[in-house]
What does this fold into?
Amino acid sequence: MRLIESQSAGSRCVVVSNDNEVFNNARAFGARVVSVQAFYAQARPASMRRPHPRASSGKAILSTRDAQQITEAYRKHLESRRRPD
It folds into this structure.
């Protein structure tokens, strides 16, 4: 905080932290604050970033209702196999 405080009001100071106390105090002293996750995401080269998991991967995404129906049908199938004929 002393470093931020010693800077002139117009200077650019960025604090990277996930600590709430540091985050709030730095902001109060006029610094720009960034979470560690946001900083890391911006600092990585684009070629190293993974696509978002929900990004189009060509895979179909099931609705919750459809997933439940499939699970229920599979459960019934397994139960029918356990019953002696």
The mean pLDDT is 77. The helical segments are 2-6, 20-28, 36-43, 64-82. Residues 51 and 58 are 13 Å apart (CA to CA).
